[in-house]
Structure formats: C-alpha cells, structure tokens
Amino acid sequence: MPLAVWLILAAGLLPLVALLPGKWSREFDNSNPRDPQYWADPFRARALSAHKNSLEAFPLFAIAVIVGLWQGGDPEWINRLCGLFISMRVLYILCYLLDKAPLRSLTWSVGFIATIAIFTTPVWS
C-alpha cells in the first residue's frame, strides 16, 4: 500500500491530536465535554480551533490522494507531497497552540498548496 494512503490515516488522526492538549486538565468533565465555559480558556479555545480546522482540511486531502493515485499521478511525488502536507499540519497545530498566527497562516497555505498539487499530479507528473 502506498505511503500516501497511510498518510490519509495519519491526517484523519490529527484532529484528535490537536484536541488532546486542551483536555489535559483535571477540570475536564467527560460528562459534559462540550461545556462552553471549559473551552473559553484561550489555550483550550485554540486547541479546539486547531481540532476543527484539522477536520475541515481532511476531506480535501483524502480525496486529493485518492484522485492523484487513481488517475495515474506519480506515486513518489504524491508521497512527498503527502509528507509535506502532514508536516505542515503538525506545525499548524503547534502554531495554533502556541498562538503564532502569522506562521500558522503560512503553514496552512503550504499545506493547502500541497493538497492542490497532490490532486493535480496526474496532469503534470
């Protein structure tokens, strides 16, 4: 199975990874996990936002990988671009948690461009 397909799984797990730091507290009440007061703390709010954005980024990435491979894109290029996407998403989550907005926007943009490149690999590779 191509590395790119395994990286779809990794991308699917990133939303959970993004949310974990926000739950590392004894105050977290699993009986009421969506308590707005709990998530109002700035750090927890950023963790929740990183989680939501990771969920939003996943479908396009997964579809791009499937289309790129299915339509005959170069698997080596697709693997590299998938690695770039995952790297950017991890950095994006870290930037969100550390409140580094300009760098966060840059990592989001590079990840988005990587996704478009994955989708279009059959055209140019």
Automatic annotation (TrEMBL):
<dbReference type="InterPro" id="IPR023352">
    <property type="entry name" value="MAPEG-like_dom_sf"/>
</dbReference>
<dbReference type="InterPro" id="IPR001129">
    <property type="entry name" value="Membr-assoc_MAPEG"/>
</dbReference>
<keyword id="KW-0812">Transmembrane</keyword>
<feature type="transmembrane region" description="Helical">
    <location>
        <begin position="77"/>
        <end position="98"/>
    </location>
</feature>
<feature type="transmembrane region" description="Helical">
    <location>
        <begin position="105"/>
        <end position="124"/>
    </location>
</feature>
<protein>
    <recommendedName>
        <fullName>MAPEG family protein</fullName>
    </recommendedName>
</protein>
<dbReference type="Pfam" id="PF01124">
    <property type="entry name" value="MAPEG"/>
</dbReference>
<dbReference type="GO" id="GO:0016020">
    <property type="term" value="C:membrane"/>
</dbReference>
<keyword id="KW-0472">Membrane</keyword>
<keyword id="KW-1133">Transmembrane helix</keyword>
